[in-house]
Amino acid sequence: MRRFLQRVRRFKRSIGPLNFFALTRTVVARGYAAILMLILCYAGFRASKYLYSLVATPAQTPAQFVHPRDSQGQFANVAPLAGSSHDRTTEYHLPAGRTISDVYNSCTIAGCHNVLPHSSKMKLPAFANMHGAFLDCLTCHAQVAKPMNAIWVSRQTGQVVEVPAVLTLDKLLHDRKDTIREHPELVHRELLSLGQQILKIRDTDRGLQAILFQIETAQPGSPVWRGGVTRLSEEFSRHATFDYGAKLIPTSRAADYLQQYRATEKLARSYLFTSSGNEPRRNQNDPIHRGLLAQATGCAACHADAPGQLNFEAAGYLPGRAKALGDLQLARVLEKVRLGGTFRLPTLVEETHANTK
Amino acid sequence: MYRWCGILALLWLIAAAPRALAADIEGCLNCHQFEGLSRPGTTGKAVHSFSIDPDYYSRDLGPHARLKCSDCHPRGEVEVFPHKPITPVDCMRSCHLTSPNRAEATFSHKSVGTLLAGSVHKGATLRRSTQLLGAANAAGQSQCLACHAEPLFRLDDHTTEDASLQRCAACHDQDALGTTRAELHHVQARTVRPRTSLEVVQLCGTCHGNAAVNSAFNLPDSTASYLASFHGKAAMLGSQNTADCLHCHAGLGQNVHGMQKALDGASPTSLIRTPDTCRTAGCHETAGAHLSAAAVHLDVASTRGIEFIIACLFVAMVAFTFGPSLLLTALKLLHYILGRRAPHEAKHAQLARVLNAHPRAREKLVRFTPHQRAQHWLLAVTFTLLCLTGFPMKFADQHWAAWLIARIGGLSVARTIHHFAGVLLICGFFYHILYVILLARRAGRDLGVGFFKALSSQSMSVGLADLKHMNKLLEYYLFLRKDKPVNGKFSPEQKFEYLGVFWGVFVLGSTGLLLWATEWTSRQFPGRTLTLAALLHTFEAFLALLHIGIVHLATVIFSPHALPVSRGMFTGETSETQLAHDHGKMLHEVAAQVGIATEAPHA
């Protein structure tokens, strides 16, 4: 004890009279020196390692210059290198980035169903998966009253959103033709705002970017501005290929969509963590799929039957387009294919088309 | 029945299809334009996407946009819906193109196939390579896919293009405009390279940077060695003018598909043709034939030649110069952290206070004159500029390097800054030599001694005594002796650092000038001079950075004794703590000069 006290006294003597500021300064300075020493040692170590590797290890290709590949040996979807003038293509016809993610999808997010849930075991899987880009699973797989009203839910937030900008812009271009002609300044801002909203979703769409740039930089009503708007109207359908940033869901299911999503996700987790093949697991499976149809409504239900299952006009489509979607000749053909038939694309059509050019 | 349904459906689809899709006369895009048209493969591991970018066709974004789908995909397979299993596309098939005069022309890649068959990249070689890469191509797929993805035109700006086309629209109808757009793209795309230098390297690196492929064909990792070379680094930093694989291995105006082995006399990289390849128009036109001996593929570790010896010597030099400095600095900091002080330090601190209060002594304690400070600032600024513009080139594969070069304004701007900062540094160096000579001459006159004697009496001159002094310091910091040797105006580390600047500027300056004047150097000296100059330049720069960036910063500028920062280069003064700690002998000398009695300084 005496020795300890002696040590304390000696320490006190060494630091002098207890001065808070002096003590703080000492601690800060020594801490600074410690940090400096660590940096120094680390830098010295890295430098030595680098020099050693330079003379001892053969040169190796830096990782960013090796094309990563997936398990199938295919080139992975890599980001373009700095200075690259265009997006890298991973496959023929398919520029990188043309994929649609659906964050709030309780069927796929828990890992129970594939992100592309319709496999090649069924008929027309690609068409069914394509509908997944703008329809929630419940729209086809839930038992709902006919005709069904549907509203839009954001694929990124799971919240109910307004009619997508793509459809609103379509409506603006169609319904307000007179205003565009007579008072272009009244629609200029709205037109650009909707265009920008679309670009947020379709940021790789260089064509749309160019048209919007033309409209934005021109005086509303000028020939250049009108040229841009005309091009937008003509080419619009190419920029509205289903990537709306939102999906349609039956109105009756939309109010508590996020709650339902979380509840289903919880149930799915519990189901997945239970060992397979036993009774509790089977019991957990039922509430997840209660009220769902294993066999979805077919193409004709929405696109051919009268009245159609989905009210397209209420969902925000233009009356003309809603009518066309509700009476789709192709859907009738596809419905036959779905039931086991095939059809041949006749050469006659191509020849006819060529002759009319 | 189905047939009529199909006809009706297609007639309706084609009539309803937007004008922009008119190029797709088979109507495939009516279904395939939609995003998300995809399904998992039969094994469940791969995803088959059938979505096609309609922009590709409607805006003619690539050369294949003018083809019908059935030009590549056998009609018998795709005309039935659901489609039959699709045979992989054979790129050697003939297809039909509509020429500007609207006549139909037949086109085929067969000539390319023939050329490829006689080249180093034969079908068997490509097949074996793709196998080694993990079957990147599916069975039966065209070998072209080993290198080529969907060909896309590199177009500058849609807006400019639209403006050009609108002029055509004044006279021509819409159908003619469609063809004009295709022709415009076709010509415009051929005025720029389809791939950037770096993309070419990345493409070739798919095989040539792959260990399995290199091992199977007994090849060195030429991607790595290229990227370690001058050209590779420039390519990594975004240069479009630097030579990539095709510049040398295909040669100017030659078809890349006919590339030959370097051993083949016809190859541009054969021993006999390499000098001319380097001197191709647009590359090193005025260079000497020796240039081709410079290392275009640089791998120091694998080269057991003079390059390797130089590298080893420099590593040893770093170990024997930077090593002790680093050790000494770390030990100094350790002593500071532990609070260990030399016995005489308290007395020196007191003396420093007394001297600072004395007006004449205070003047004498100023260690750097404004003239010296100006020279130091010139050195500091040029050195910083050289580091900022030079080290991104040395470490070009690091992400920060590309970022920094982009901030500076691109590689060419960085190079210009580097060159001129280098010239300024050399000028400053010669000016300093002149300054030292004049200083020594004046001192010689004042003291009545010869020039060399006066030079060696300068406070920054290094002598044998400094080595002994350094040894004692090391012993003290290693806790092997209790008394700390006392420094004068400059410590031995500072003197060695000063000497290092002479060596460094000489090496960096001379090699830098040789590299800058590449063509001249290649005419006067053997080609390997450039490789050696590049090695010496980067190694010496690295050594300088270590000394300045680590030791000088930690012991002088941001030393804990001079917190927060040393004032030496702003006012020329040194803090009392630093004077007491590092310059005890100088304190005693100044005290003697102004007539203040002190105890004799420690040895």
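Chain B touches chain A through 117 residues (CB under 8 Å).
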